[in-house]
Design a protein that fits this description.
Layout lengths: L9 E5 L2 H4 L20 H9 L22 H15 L3 E5 L2 H4 L10 H16 L3 E7 L5 H7 L6 H17 L5 E5 L9 H5 L9 H26 L4 E7 L3 E3 L4 H24 L5 H8 L10 H7 L4 E5 L4 E3 L33 H15 L3 E5 L17 H20 L3 E7 L19 E3 L11 E3 L1 H11 L6
Parallel strand pairs: 1-2, 1-10, 2-3, 3-4, 4-5, 5-7, 6-8, 7-9, 9-10
Antiparallel strand pairs: 11-12
Length: 478
């Protein structure tokens, strides 16, 4: 028997401005982090994991796919019409901070940038699609990175407060659902993405990362309070990357290790943003890693008063781990580490596929926090083949999504309060982790390739029609 999803369940898709908008120097926009990240898996992952990234554009050496994205900036009406055709109830998007404040530290916003998002929100409203807006999605203005050192610098709290105040005053009545920082807990793994800095040396990475996180906790709490003041009917969520951590075996040492890893990665940021306080378990971690957080008077009270209304999260994979592992045992492709799980298959990019893990994640989160949950990223990056007749038979994507939606339904039956589901990359876009177009997630195919060639024309994949029916039946027909 099919599990019934709640009435008003928010089905839709998810994107980020830096991965689809393009127009990187149009409309008064300033440069941001994504604009200096080159394409290609080897280029991007190598630079992201290195120390001392120089943040310069070198077009003689690299291709920068984010500069054009899929040209949503000029084609948003066409794309939103396709989302409406699928029946989207919601569309998760982000605002590019450097469209609103090109350098990030100006006193007055850029009107052209504000007007662009007005047009997007008006177009969504025309089709009765509720926007779900991420305020900061790996899009730190480049000036704030080069001049201030990113979120390590307390000054960014002030700049972020100015930014969100402008957004909330401008878009009140147009946007009800907001997320503060995308995948905030991933910042210690890739501080360049989340915190806007490249560690000078590995020895200071954790100290700088957790200091930057504290500044984001303060900024997020201020944003929640401002949203509730300016838009009383608004709801603001945190956004986590969530991956259940399994012990490799029943060895108590490995079980304890997996539990400790899960607490730091999955629970720390959620505890601060949902419960409003630093959890007791972090004290030992800070002590053993020589981490000392500088706080200002009133920070902890502010964090306590600025807790989020709901938890949103991305789910792509689980993690299996053991205390002692050899290099050969480490799971290839899983961005969050661990060892290979012998019970799971992996995607073309090595990400292990675990639908049951989504049900586990939902139950873990709801059991810990008892606040509404929202799955805002989940999807399969895969190679798609265009047939001679133009069709794209992506049954592998349908199968992936079907099993994950089934797992969500089971979690709802378990008693989890679930608000909605936005499949990641509902239209093909530039991969954040690899800078590739060939790693496709969408229901909608975009004729754009890794070398920058292609017409940018849109076409419907087989999964487009499947997801349309899923939404029409509120998940009863999968």
């Amino acid at each position: 028997m099919a599990v019934k999803f709640p009435e008003g369940f928010l089905w839709g898709g998810a994107t980020a401005a830096n991965q689809l908008e393009g127009a990187y120097q149009e409309g008064g926009k300033g440069l941001n982090l994504a604009d200096v990240l080159p394409g290609g898996k080897e280029n991007r992952l190598g630079l992201l994991s290195s120390t001392g990234f120089n943040f310069e554009i070198d077009q003689s050496k690299y291709h920068y796919p984010n500069h054009e994205g899929i040209d949503f900036y000029h084609r948003y009406k066409e794309d939103i019409a396709l989302f409406a055709e699928m029946g989207f109830k919601t569309f998760r998007m982000s605002i590019a901070w450097s469209r609103i404040f090109p350098n990030g530290d100006e006193l007055e916003p850029n009107e052209e940038g504000l007007a662009f998002y007005d047009r997007v929100f008006d177009e969504l409203a025309k089709h009765n699609i509720e926007p779900l807006v991420t305020i900061a999605h790996y899009e730190t203005p480049l000036h704030l990175i080069k001049e201030y050192g990113g979120w390590r610098n307390r000054k960014l709290v002030e700049f972020f407060e100015r930014y969100v105040t402008v957004l909330f005053n401008r878009y009140k009545g147009k946007v009800k659902y907001w997320l503060t920082f995308n995948e905030i807990n991933g910042a210690t793994h890739m501080p360049l993405f989340g915190l806007g800095f490249s560690p000078e040396k590995e020895e200071t990475r954790l100290q700088d990362s957790f200091q930057g996180l504290h500044h984001q906790f303060v900024a997020s709490a201020k944003a929640v309070q401002l949203a509730h003041e300016i838009m009383p009917d608004s709801q603001v969520g945190c956004m986590l990357i969530y991956a259940p951590v399994y012990s490799f075996d029943s060895n108590p040492e490995n079980v304890l290790y997996a539990q400790e890893e899960a607490r730091i990665f999955n629970n720390f940021c959620g505890d601060v943003q949902v419960r409003g306080e630093y959890p007791s378990f972090i004290d030992r971690y800070f002590r053993e890693n020589n981490i000392n957080i500088e706080m200002e008077d009133g920070d902890l009270e502010l964090i306590k008063q600025g807790t989020v209304d709901f938890i949103s999260f991305s789910y792509y994979m689980s993690r299996t781990d053991k205390k002692t592992k050899t290099p050969e045992e480490i799971g290839q492709g899983n961005l969050i580490g661990g060892v290979k799980n012998p019970f799971l298959k992996a995607s073309d990019w090595g990400w292990e596929i675990d639908p049951i893990g989504l049900r586990i994640a939902l139950n873990e989160l709801y059991g810990r926090y008892q606040v509404p949950l929202f799955v805002v990223e989940n999807g399969l990056g895969a190679y798609d083949k265009v047939e001679e007749d133009g069709s794209i038979n992506d049954d592998y994507r349908i199968n992936y999504l079907r099993e994950h939606i089934k797992a969500m339904g089971e979690a709802v039956d378990d008693g989890v309060e679930l608000m909605g589901y936005t499949a990641w990359g509902c239209i093909d876009l530039v991969s954040a982790s690899s800078g590739e177009m060939s790693k496709r997630y969408g229901f909608i195919y975009v004729d754009r390739h890794d070398d920058g060639s292609g017409s940018l024309e849109r076409s419907r994949k087989k999964s487009f029609f499947w997801y349309k029916n899923v939404i029409a039946t509120n998940g009863e027909e999968l």
